Amino acid sequence: MGIVVIGSLALDCVETAHGGIADAPGGSALYFSAAASLFTEVSLVGVVGEDFPVSEIRFLKERGVLSDGLEIIKGGKTFRWSGCYELDMNKRVTTNLELNVFMDFNPVLDERSRKSDYVFLGNIDPELQLRVIEQVQNPRFIGADTIECYITDRRPLLDKVLSKVNMVIFNDEEARMITGEHNIIRAASALRKLGPQYVVVKKGEHGSIMVTDDGLFMVPAYPVDSVIDPTGAGDTFAGGLMGYAAKSGSIDSGTLRKAIVYGGVTASFTVEDFSLNRLRNLTMDEIENRVDNFRKMVTF
Ligand code: AMP
Predict the structure, then answer these.
(1) Which numbered atom of ligand 1 lies nearest the CA of 11?
(2) pLDDT tens digits along 247-300
(3) Where does ligand 1 bind, in terms of residues with CB under 6 Å?
(4) Residue ID of nearest Cα to ligand 1 atom 10
(5) What DSSP string runs through 43-91?
(6) Model-level pTM?
C-alpha cells in the first residue's frame, strides 16, 4: 500500500523578485513527500550528505513519511541546485547544479517499499528511476516527472522510463522539448505514443491539462495573490495528485480529474513562501477549504 517516491533531496539557493533563500531544503522528493503525506503513507527513497539539516525535515516523519530508504552519506555533500526567477515566475534559469552524493547513489528498496501500489519517479537521473521500477513487485500505478537536463543528456534512458509508466506529469516546456511539438495538445498526444496512458501537462500559473483515452481535461491554477517562490510547485502538484489517487484507491478518469484539482490546490500553498516553509504546517482542512472555493470559482 502507499506510495514510494524517489527523487532529489537538495539544498536550494533561490532568488525571486521577493528576495532569496540559501541552502534551504528542497528537491523533488521532499516537495512530493510533504504534499502526498497529507493524503496517504509515503516511503521516501533518496540520499543526502552529512551537511543536510535533517532536523528541518523532521515534520515529514511526524506526518508518517517512512525514511528507511533515505541514506545519509558520512562526509558526503548533498545535491545542490540554484535558480533565479524572472518577474514572470513561469521563467527561471538554473545557475548551479551539483549532483554530489547522487553521483554514486544506488537506491535499494526495503521489503515494504517494494510492495507499494503507487510509485512516483521525481526529477532525478532516469537511470535511478529505472532502478526503482525494477524493484517494485507489482505496482498498480507509476507516475513520473523529469527536468530539462535529463531530456537533453539522458534521452535514451528517459524514453525507457516513459515506456514503463502509466502517467507523466511534465511542464509545458518539458513536453515541448521531448516531443518537438510546440502546441501543448499535440505534445500531450505525442507523449502518449511514447508509453504513458495518462499525460498531465503543467502550465504554471495557467493551470494544467490531462489527456487520456477519455479526451482532454483542463483545470485552471488556484489563484493566489502573493507568489513568493514557485520552486517545488510541480513536485507538490504531483504529490497532491498521486496522494489523492492513492488514498481513493481507484484509478479511473473521474478520480484522476479530482486528483488534479487536489494537486493544483496543494501546490498553491507551496508558492506562498520559500522552500518547504508553507508545506510544513499545511493541514487537510486548509486544502479542503481551497478545493471548496475552487469549485465555486469554476462552476457556471
Ligand atoms: P520544480 O520547481 O517543481 O521544477 O522543482 C524544483 C526542485 O527540483 C528544486 O527543489 C531542485 O532542488 C530540484 N531540481 C532542480 N534541478 C534538478 C535536477 N536536475 N535533478 C533533480 N532535481 C532537480
Answers:
(1) 12
(2) 999 999 999 999 999 999 999 999 999 999 999 999 999 999 999 999 999 999
(3) 8, 10, 12, 26-28, 81, 97, 123-124, 147, 149, 231-235
(4) 27
(5) EEEEEEETTS-GGGGHHHHHTT-EEEEEEEETT---EEEEEEE-SSTT-
(6) 0.97
